[in-house]
Write a structure and sequence with these properties.
Blueprint lengths: L1 E6 L7 H16 L3 E6 L5 H12 L5 H25 L4 E4 L6 E3 L8 E4 L2 H8 L3 E5 L2 E3 L5 E3 L5 H11 L4 E6 L20 E3 H6 L1 H4 L5 H10 L3 E5 L7 E4 L12 E5 L2 E10 L4 H11 L7 E3 L6 E9 L3 H14 L2 E7 L2 E7 L9 H11 L6 E5 L2 E7 L3 H11 L5
Parallel strand pairs: 1-2, 1-9, 2-6, 3-6, 9-11, 10-12
Antiparallel strand pairs: 4-5, 7-8, 11-12, 13-18, 14-16, 14-17, 15-16, 18-20, 19-20
The chain binds aspartic acid and magnesium ion.
Length: about 400
């Protein structure tokens, strides 16, 4: 098999751990696989470098930041390659540029535009283990760029896609994706497999494991991802195409998003175009709207409620205010003490009664549902923040996710 193995910051956190990673890579190679390794900087290193720059400037040039931050990954790539060579392997360290990663020019948050995998192919053919510095590429002019924080996941997935690897293993300090946050529900179970779309919906569970952008890229490039722990031999969670999952469960997991705020617009003039006007202005301000409900109009007025991330509430308020001032909205109110609980599963596409069970679970626990939104694979309920954990545990139990 051709395997890409990506090791995150904690996995290469000190020299001993880098040796550990070398042992693991060596094992994979000795089993007869071709291996391309992608590494992050040692944990804390990127932050340390950011701190160095801030000593000199509050607003350092972004091109300089890329030059600086890309060095962290080069350190681990070269050290790992040296360790592998010392173990008798033919290894070669590559920068993003050497690995053929071409990006646009938006420094510190560049997007990968193309990968020229020839250098990697050549080294693989020669039997080498390739160790690529993650998180970086070059623009057209050959100037180094970085892909945004957490971006070495993206490097790994993009490389895996470009060389059509059989597998892209993402090693971190957690052993996979769980049915819910084990800190809330200790009975949470590790999932064997999950589809890309479910993973994207369960972002709140996977956030520390895997960047959402990399899941999107994996889906686009059809890369089979496995997240697993670098500190044990436990099997991880496979993230793959829905078709590849045998016997998808009805529900895969329960996600919790505490980071939502509710905006209520009262006495909105009930005329064509008003919703479009409000939501277009919010979109222009890059406010992400999630759940929306509009009530039946009454006396030419209607109410519209929606949720936004707490961090975007301020921007949303400013826009809503302009409509209040012009008289198109009579009044508005805000509530930050809410959360969104979601039941996620591809299996619900072909089953009835999944939503009904979610609602009756809330009823049984005496939790009032403020808002509801559904998609093919998700039922989201907005409830008061104080019920967050009760709701998660209740749903986890109702769908028997501990079984
Ligand atoms: N070292 C970079 C960061 O901390 C990239 C990564 O680790 O994925 O964001
Ligand atoms: Mg990471």
């Amino acid at each position: 098999m051709l395997i890409v193995q990506k090791f995150g910051g904690t996995s290469v956190g000190d020299l001993e751990r880098i040796q550990n990673v070398a042992n693991r890579v060596s094992e994979t190679k000795k089993k007869g696989n071709d291996v391309v390794v992608v590494v992050s900087a040692m944990s804390g290193e990127t932050n340390k470098l950011v701190g160095y720059a801030e000593y000199f400037s509050k607003n350092p040039a972004r091109a300089e930041m890329d030059m600086l931050l890309s060095s962290g990954e080069r350190v681990t790539a070269s050290l790992l390659s040296i360790a592998l060579q010392e173990m008798g392997h033919d290894a070669v360290a590559m920068t993003g540029r050497n690995a053929g990663i071409l990006t646009d020019s938006s420094h510190t948050k560049a997007r990968i535009e193309d990968i020229n995998p020839n250098a990697i192919y050549k080294a693989v053919k020669e039997g080498k283990i390739i160790v690529v510095a993650g998180f970086q590429g070059v623009n057209e002019a050959g100037i180094v760029t970085t892909l945004g924080r957490g971006g070495s996941d993206l490097s790994a997935v993009a490389i895996a896609g470009a060389i059509q690897a059989d597998l892209c293993e993402i090693f971190t300090d957690v052993s996979g994706i769980y049915t819910t946050d084990p800190r809330i529900e200790p009975k949470a179970k590790k999932l064997n497999a999950i589809s890309y779309d479910e993973m994207l919906e369960l972002a709140s569970l996977g956030a520390k494991v895997l960047q959402n952008r990399s899941v999107e890229m994996a889906k686009k490039l059809n890369v089979n991802l496995v997240t697993r722990s670098s500190f044990s031999n436990e099997e991880g969670t496979l993230i793959t195409k829905e078709e590849n999952i045998m016997e998808a469960p009805l529900v895969s997991g329960i996600a919790l998003d505490r980071n939502q705020a509710r905006i209520s617009l009262m006495g909105v003039k009930d005329k064509p175009g008003i919703a479009s006007d409000i939501f277009n202005k919010l979109a222009d301000a890059e406010v992400n709207i999630d759940v929306i409900i509009q009530n039946k109009a009454h006396d030419g007025m209607t109410n519209i409620d929606f949720t936004v991330p707490v961090s975007e509430l301020h921007d949303a308020k400013k826009i809503v205010d302009t409509f209040v001032q012009s008289g198109d909205i009579a009044d508005d109110s805000y509530n930050e003490d809410i959360c969104k609980v979601s039941v996620v599963g591809v299996g619900m596409k072909s089953h009835v009664g999944v939503a009904a069970k979610a609602f009756s679970t809330m009823a049984k626990n005496n939790i009032n549902i403020n808002m509801i939104a559904t998609s093919e694979i998700k039922i989201s309920m907005v409830v008061d923040e104080k019920y967050a954990e009760l709701a998660v545990r209740g749903l986890h139990d109702a769908y028997e996710l501990d079984k």
